[in-house]
Amino acid sequence: MPLDLDFVRSQFPALAGEWAFMDNAGGSQVLRRVADRVSDYLLTSSVQTGASYAPSRLSTQRVAQTREAFARFMNCDPGEIVEGPNTTILLRFLSEAMTGRLQPGDEIVLTNVDHEANIGPWLHHAARGVVIKWWRCDPETFELDLGDLRALMSERTKLVCVTHASNILGTINPIAEIADIVHAAGAELVVDAVAYAPHRAIDVKALGADYYVFSVYKVFGPHHAVMYGKRDRLEALDNIYHYFFDKSRVPHKIEPGNMNYECAWGSIGTVDYVEELGRREGAAKGAAQGDAEGRAAIEAGFAGIAEQERIVSARLMDFLLSRNSVRVIGRTSTAIEDRVSTLSFTVGKESSRGIVEAVDAAKVGIRFGDFYARRVVEEHGLMKQDGVVRVSMIHYNTVAEVDRLIAALEPAL
Fold first, then answer.
1. Residue 286 falls within a domain, yes or no?
2. What is the pLDDT of residue 289?
């Protein structure tokens, strides 16, 4: 059953305007319920947590409910949820907290297709004698080969860092298989899921990652981020907060300065929304409205999201593949298991900037550049064209909006 797009789009006030937003990998539009929750927190419970008086107890409860919501969203324990302002910061916190466990001669494997957020923090350890190894994609297909990863692993490998879905290629990487390879070598796996989280249900238990992080502002919410870490892994990390925080005090020891409470409370609205989509999906298929709750609702909601995104991706991909001048960067399959609805391309030797600026007049928001995954763009000679053109859609985008984009693109192709 297709998503009820009238309901979906009614939940995002910005969609009532003239613009079609197809730069969602940079940040999605925000749910009304999220904004309402942020306002509610600021106007009714904006005090520090941890005190005995009633408003502080309320604030403490609300922050705790955030961890419970994202534990449900990711299928883990609330005590395994770390929160912060964005993925870049959380990965820097994680890198700092691993300092005591990374010794000279230890190895970290990085990919050249990742966003710099999952590269830069780990490169700092090279100055201490940690060896950096690169898992590079195929120069023609942009695919990461698991055989290449196996060849890189050694008894000194401590960490492998990889993206679940590339924010340029849209490619979904096989995280569970990668985790098996990493763990067989006695190493740990850090996954950047920023470009995956808006598109598919997350089950960190099934995936096997040791750390898994994404930004909520890419998932219909405010500027906030969450990171899952296996409990024993979190306990083994260094304390990067005040000296009197015990090493076992997780997750707080890696949340220095506390989180943004109003954004944390507002972020619960994103989980509620996906659950509501799942309940509506169940009702549309003849099940009782309340049958799908919690994880079941989240999985059902994302099933509907994935199908809508497959439809709009296929429409755009078919058009791009019909033009001899266009080179799609990455996979051309639009199957749900292969990619998310982020598509990037170049047009001959044309400037990607010029193509995007031509589309601006049609009030369709797309983007050009390297999107902070600069290494793969530089290494494959794409910077000379101002990077790639990226169209990043999510489930609230419609076929009519894609057709509007195609009409604007055609003269430039």
1. no
2. 46
8 A C-beta contact, residue 78 and residue 68: yes
Give, for 148, the enclosing helix (H) or strand (E). Answer: helix 146-152
pLDDT at residue number 128 = 96
| Terminal Cα-to-Cα distance of the chain (whole angstroms) | 35
Spans in the chain with pLDDT lower than 70: 1, 283-292
Q: Which helix (H) or strand (E) holds 140?
A: none
Please tell me the distance from the alpha carbon of residue 387 to that of residue 377, in angstroms, as a whole number: 6
Whole-structure pTM value: 0.96
Element of type H or E holding 229:
strand 225-229
Rounded CA separation 289/285 (Å):
10
Q: Tell me the residue ranges of DSSP E strands in 36-106.
A: 81-84
Is the sign of the CA dihedral 168, 162, 256, 50 positive or negative?
Answer: positive
Cα–Cα distance, 80 to 231 (Å, whole number): 6
The CATH code of the domain that includes 236 is 3.40.640.10
DSSP 8-state secondary structure symbol assigned to residue 13: G
In a domain, 77, yes or no: yes
Is residue 209 domain-shared with residue 346, that is, in the same domain? no
Residue in this structure with the two tokens 């791009």, named with its chain if needed: 320
Strand residues in 41-121 grouped as ranges (E):
81-84, 107-111
Say whether 304 sits in a helix, a strand or coil: helix
Alpha-carbon distances, residue 412 vs 25, 225, 357, 390, 407 (angstroms):
23, 37, 10, 15, 10
> Could you report the per-residue pLDDT of 317-355, keeping only the tens digit for each?
999 999 999 999 999 999 999 999 999 999 999 999 999
C-alpha distance from residue 244 to each of 194, 231, 241, 253 (Å):
33, 20, 8, 10
The pLDDT of residue 294: 84
| Helix extents (H) in 210-293 | 231-236, 261-284
Give ∠ CA 321-200-342 in degrees, rounded to 5.
30
CATH number at residue 402: 3.90.1150.10
At CA 86, angle to CA 85 and CA 89, rounded to 5? 90
pLDDT tens-digit series, residues 108-125: 999 999 999 999 999 999
In the chain, what is the greatest distance between 2 CA atoms, to the nearest angstrom? Answer: 68
Residue 291 falls inside a structural domain: no
- The count of structural domains within the chain is 2
**Which residue among 226, 251, 267 closes a domain?**
267
For residues 96 and 39, what is the distance between their CA atoms, to the nearest angstrom?
33
Count CB neighbours of 76 within 10 A: 21
Cα separation, 152 vs 326, in Å, equals 34
**In the structure encoding, which two tokens stand for residue 93, read together?**
């916190």
